[in-house]
Protein 1
Amino acid sequence: MNARRSVPKGFIGLLGVVAIIASACGSSTTSTAPSATASEAPSVAAATEAPSPSLVNITPAPIAAGPGPNGGTVVRWFIGLGAGTQPAQIGPEQAFITAFNNSQKDVYIQYEIVDNTQASNILKTEIAAGNAPDIIGPVGVEGLNLFQDQLLDLKPLIDSTGYKSNGVDQSLVDFFNSLGQNGATVGLPFAVYPSFIFYNKDLFDEAGLPTPPTKVGDPYDGKPWDLDALRTLAMKLTVDKNGKDATQAGFDPNNIVQWGFESQYMDNYNLRAESAFFGAGALQDSSGKAVIPDYMAQAAKWYNDGVWKDHFIPTANQVTSDLLSGGSEFASGNVAIDEGHTWFTCCVTPSAPKKPFKFGFAVQPTVNGKITSPLHADTFSILKTTKVPDAAFKALQAIVASGDLLTAYGAMPADQTKQQAWFDSIDAQFPGMKLDWNVAKQMLAYPDIPNHQSNVPDYSKVRSAMQAFGNAYRTTQGLDIDAELAKLQQTLQGIFDEATP
Amino acid sequence: MARTSRAVPAPIRRSREGRGQLGPSGREAVWGFVFVAPWIIGFLLFTIGPLIASLVFSLTDFDLVRPEAVRFVGLDNYARMVADPLVVQGLVVTARFAIIAIPVTMIASLGVALLVNSPRLFGRNLFRTLFYMPIQIPLVASTLVWIGFLNTETGWLNGLLGLAGIDGPDWLNSATWVYPALTLIGLWGIGNFMLINIAGLQSVPTELYEAARIDGAGPWSSFRRITIPMMSPILLYNLVISLITTFQYLTQAYVLTNGRGDPNNATLFINLDLFREAFVNNHMGYASAIGWLLFTIVLVMTLVLFFIARRRVYYAGGEA
């Protein structure tokens, strides 16, 4: 009798325990985690801007099967991987879509705006559920890599429609064409973000130092503008609490209050990003072997020495300290030089009550006799699961041609004829400062090819390995960089071997 | 319990006999089911459904961005887990953190509950509110505040230690100190456990303390021989929930390390590894297998706890 009663009781108890654990394990803890973002520059801007309104409320209900209200083929546009989710951007997007939908009867754009921090995961889920949108973007090179297998090759559509990227330099067209796998064209040129030197003019004036050159080939203080010149200059601009700079005897590295150099927002100390102004190269040779390019090894040592020996680059703890505004290093006013992309104008204004400082642009220094300006780019793509490629391509052409969207996104146009308007819009944000946009224009001639965000097998894992390496030299004194690089190469080889069938 | 189980069939019998109406206990049972139905439906749809789906996924190489290429791989994902150093690391990190954080959290929440339940404390309600308040702050926001607090350069904690002549550690970048740091951050969230403990403390009959006092028991003796045994079901509940939440630990580690598990994978909790596999590396099939490993571990540990509880936990109204 007892045995008979105890079995179901125990079983029910076990079921109860399972149910409790299943319920508890299904709680919301996981959902609060930030998502891995597919965006590059725009996500940085997003972090500094006002939070989005409820995106659920501004995304209209999906249209069931059939034509849109204007009688056109419905094309779904997914916004959120990069720019486009901020309140100031949503209005112009809606205005563009309304105008486009009213202007013709062939295509009806249905938009879907999702939170930037969740966009990548939402898109993955939609793809996995067989509910993928037709168009995605704006999206950076990195975002494209995450969805590389799902992107439609636009070449047949470009050929059949005779589409031309008017006003875009052929080198940039080639750059955009290089972003797909196996020669596929996966995005139309939209926006470019060359990189260069941002400098805090007030700190230069205070130190009585001339600002770096704004023209390629010009010297700095009578000497070549190269990596050594940058190092020396950065050390002179690194100051301790007693006012001594890092080149002077008695400099106190434990009490630094101002740093000479930083590469802020380079993807969390990602070595591949931080080293990109040293040169360009692939992480894998033609035989599939993992490679650490020489320029990258050189950069790793330069950064490591810069942090621990010469002290002109802040440690990770210094970066997150109040002295550097908890990760807004350049805007803190305590960093003299920052190597950044054009989008970095988003993040140079200090928070109140600090007053804005004057800043300027300078060209990249030469490294081993060459200039390299790491390039970021934004584009729009069509997913290969689309059932309406022709209609989607028509919408895509209109989107990339929209000057209003470029302005709303704060994106430097790939189309040269539209660039001046964008320069003017940025200048208007910084009254009293004369920003030399010729620097940005010049730097477009020195893109890093292959790009530092170019696709590799299992891109996400490689990116993590590169970030972990950078984090190590920002947090650990006395690292044997050669040994660490050897370990990194081994890690990369493991990732490539696992990813390659 | 026994009375209810005998009473439930009665109205059904009457119904079959054609009397048409349920008795009071039958109506009570029906309404009971009606009221719990939303939870049951939600549980089936949103917990059991995904649970079964994840079990199926775990037997495939399901990739989030290549759903069309999904293949059945049998137990390959489970075999791969055994040899995956990151899974092993995730389990070690989680276990290490559990060993430090769970006892500290349990003791601290009980200690604070005793404190704010003391009749001698002036402004008890104010202190209860203050200790509970941090729970209301989103985890991401509070973690960012803690990053500043623990910063070696300008953080308040090392600043205070410095005043005492102590050179504070690198809390967040040291593989050793990051666990105490995370435990410290976790102490901010003991408000829920504190509330449950207060409820438990208030349910202990005061007659027991009075009788003990008459018998000459001091505060420590009363605490050890009355409070702890009478609170044991509450403590067991807190322990089980702590265990589950520790194995679910993710947000703070993600925010602290940008989701990488720095320094040197010292914060690569098993749930963070799972998250990375699923949503960074897109290996949903493999991540599902890790999820089932996690589920099995938590289930076994909970069963062990319940088994131990048979001897160690005192239920005033008989065994639950």
Protein 2
Amino acid sequence: MSYEEEINKNIQENKKLPEKLEISVLRYFWQSNPLIGKTKDSIPRFLRNIDVLNNFSENELRILAKFLHLRKFQPGEVIFKQGDLGVGFYLLYSGYADIIVESNEEDENGRLDSKHILTLEKSDYFGELALLQEISIRNASAVSRQGCELLGLFKPDIEELINHHPVIAAKLLQSVSLIVANRLFSLTREVQELKYKLSALEKEQDAAD
Amino acid sequence: MPQINIVTKRERFKLIFFFSIIILAFVGLSSMPRVSIPLLLGYVIFLIVYPAVPTLEKLGINRTGSIWIVFSSLIFFSIYPFVKIVPTVTAEIENVQYYLPKIEKYVTKKYEETRIEVREKTSFEIGDKYFFQALDWVRKTSTNILLNVPKILASFLEWVFFIPLIIFFLLKDGKSFKRGILRLTPNSIFERFYFLSHQFNKKLGDYIFAKFVEASIVGITITSGLLILNVRFALLFGLLAAVTNIIPYVGPVVGFIPALLFSLAEYGSGTTLGAIIILYVVANAIDIAIVFPILVSKVVDLHPLTVVVSVILGSQWLGMIGMVISIPFAAALKLIAQEVYKEIYQE
């Protein structure tokens, strides 16, 4: 593991960094170097590692990066709430996000029962349906865990991309469709399995009767 | 169970800060009309010319190149009207003052005749207090406008330098300016704010572009018609019809009255008057039947009463520009109100 990878891993895991990197003056001058465009370079590099964007060229990723919005969330801050009108698709740039589903049943305190579905990590994406549906209602809540950074792409950005860079817009929509198609495929398989299990159960019950 | 913390303390502070900036910007701009009017005008022109930028980009020209082409053509095509039309219009406006006494005399004479006729037929005496008051008001207002022409032209000269500058920087830096505002937007309202502001801008842009095309069609039809009929002040009446066309419902009537009075006084109730009436009716019929349904009604979906009320409020707040932006502004407010309604009542 290279030194850079080691440091990156430490940052991700919120571990203490070696002391020499904590020299604030040195860090200040390093970060204020105008030749180092921190987010300018790192966002296209980050996008390169996302599997569904592998049909993009380097230049196309650089253009796409200009349309993404980097949003920082505090620990426990809500990214979006279930039932909200959604217009954006998010990529996890750093940190973790919890996906929570609130059921309609109330617990003993009269509060809606919520269930933690999964935790997303760096390079994961969510909210893609909002880009494709005309009126998209979020079917789960997303909450930042220990603080996170997200790259958001919203409906107005898609419109602008279509007007200014139609090829990139087409590739992006192809990627989003790919994500949706993959999810639909796994859902169909899950439904098939459930149906199979259900019919097996029904057969068992019939045999018992 | 994960804790869903809807609005953190920091977020609340961000929300207060963000809305304070927006309110301050609005208050600041409305208290400085000398800056806000050219800014609004620049923005309106920017919205009209901006669709050309992506079109040029699609042809393979880069963004900076497209902006320079759009800006240079805007300047190039505005020079001719400035050099040619502005002095003609100014001269015509100044010439109008020589015709005003004639029109006034004609209107007074007609009123007197009607009064006598009504008295003879019904023995009812029409009071002339309100008539003279109205006439006095018209006389004072038109003199005021004529006297203010140099003043308007002076501010116009200020605008000639200021507005192109605003348009250029909106074309060049509009995007980064927008991103700057979005960066300040708190997370809890980001998606909604971005989407609504985008819808608002789109509505405003589409509406202004549609109105610009509509006013130009009406203006060109009337000017060319009047030129064919060889009516004096054809350009002025065409321009007036185009400008008043922006105001819904009452605009076309307001634009027609001066031309009607002038032709009555100048040409009498003959064939020229008939031809002028037909011309205005045809131009407005084309507008109502063809141009408006295709261009404008798609953009705004408001009750006629809302349209009239918003135009009145707009004119009171920012004059002519207020009238132009009042309708898309009302449409956008409706959009926001619908969102708020959904938020409050749908849970």
